Inverse folding.
């Protein structure tokens, strides 16, 4: 059996065993539960924040003055946004003004920070408010706007131009940083599955049977691509849910998201390709580690330094954000383990696809080298632990 056919057989076997298992459904649901809980608690937090972000000021005035003050607040909220303007709550004046103020300041529903009393000619603000605070300045503006007659304002002629280079560079840097973070965390989360699979088959002695039937490097390649295919299937499900969620929450206004330098179609395609390369690089490294470990304890001991090293690599790749042509960024792009992260950030910040073709060829070369090295180590370990022939057969004792 040639290596290509053997790798395909191993890949089909592992992919079928993974996808058709009962646990794969929970694997697909796994990342959705944190997103669902995050959305629920985020909505609750946003609702609480909307109620408590801006202070509530109780207004104790006659109805005509409060109506003018409320109309001034509406005009200010239209310009600055509802969440940026102090909230007002009207209360009719009572005979005992001091007792009313004390009672309002003790109110918890709504939580009143201060009480505005008097009339427009002699207003007084009582409560936990500094003289130069935002609340005090907003109320001064509302009072002046209430006293000045409202004149019709001329129509403002707005001429829209393409985004400036400086603002686009800043927005694209944010896109690059987010792309790097998603790529890093997804790879770290999913690449560890190769370790557990390798240990399970080694403990059941299945791996020795497979190693006797197919070349070791073909077995490694098949296992690696099988898990990559399963992860890509999961990414397809998670990505569809994520895009639908973002489109729903944004109300369909996806044009407000900054466009990467290479465009959204090319960026998404490169994101999938660089995820595959990053997974293959890290997965090949994890497979090599799993080949040297016999127990789960040994896997944890060996994989911990690799995980910490990957965090350092993520830090190395982060220096490329905002300066894709700097010396440090180019060095991080050449280093194979950080290359996918750096090049994805480059796709968000700089146009052109030529550099990505070279980077992908360079990363593929290193995937092959790491797999060959891991297969060599694994071959030596298998031949030493099981029946060996030829050069590896031990001579009988004299």
């Amino acid at each position: 059996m040639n290596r290509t056919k053997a790798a395909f057989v191993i890949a089909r076997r592992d992919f079928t065993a993974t996808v058709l298992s009962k646990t794969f459904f929970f694997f697909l649901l796994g990342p959705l539960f944190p997103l669902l809980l995050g959305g629920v608690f985020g909505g609750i937090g946003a609702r609480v924040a909307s109620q408590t972000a801006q202070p509530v000021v109780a207004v104790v005035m006659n109805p005509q003055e409060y109506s003018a003050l409320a109309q001034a607040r509406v005009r200010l909220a239209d310009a600055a946004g509802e969440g940026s303007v102090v909230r007002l709550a009207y209360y009719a004046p009572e005979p005992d003004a001091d007792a009313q103020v004390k009672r309002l300041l003790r109110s918890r529903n709504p939580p009143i920070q201060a009480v505005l009393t008097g009339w427009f000619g002699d207003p007084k603000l009582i409560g936990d408010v500094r003289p130069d605070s935002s609340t005090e300045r907003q109320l001064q503006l509302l009072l002046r706007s209430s006293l000045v007659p409202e004149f019709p304002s001329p129509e403002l002629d707005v001429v829209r131009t393409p985004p400036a280079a400086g603002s686009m560079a800043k927005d694209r840097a944010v896109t690059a940083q987010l792309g790097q973070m998603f790529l890093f965390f997804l790879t770290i989360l999913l690449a560890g599955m190769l370790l557990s699979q390798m240990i399970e088959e080694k403990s059941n002695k299945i791996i020795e049977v497979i190693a006797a039937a197919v070349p070791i490097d073909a077995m490694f390649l098949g296992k690696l691509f099988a898990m990559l295919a399963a992860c890509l299937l999961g990414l397809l499900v998670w990505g569809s849910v994520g895009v639908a969620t973002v489109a729903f929450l944004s109300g369909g206004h996806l044009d407000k998201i900054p466009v990467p330098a290479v465009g959204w179609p090319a960026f998404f395609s490169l994101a999938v390709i660089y995820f595959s390369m990053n997974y293959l690089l890290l997965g090949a490294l994890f497979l090599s580690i799993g080949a040297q470990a016999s127990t789960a304890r040994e896997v944890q001991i060996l994989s911990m330094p690799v995980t910490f090293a990957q965090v350092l690599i993520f830090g190395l790749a982060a220096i490329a954000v905002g300066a894709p042509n700097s010396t440090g960024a180019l060095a991080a792009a050449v280093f194979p383990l950080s290359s996918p992260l750096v090049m994805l950030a480059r796709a968000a910040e700089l146009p052109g696809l030529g550099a990505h073709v070279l980077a992908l060829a360079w990363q593929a070369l290193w995937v092959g080298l790491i797999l060959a090295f891991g297969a060599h180590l694994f071959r030596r370990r298998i031949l030493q632990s099981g029946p060996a022939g030829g050069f590896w057969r031990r001579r009988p004792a004299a």
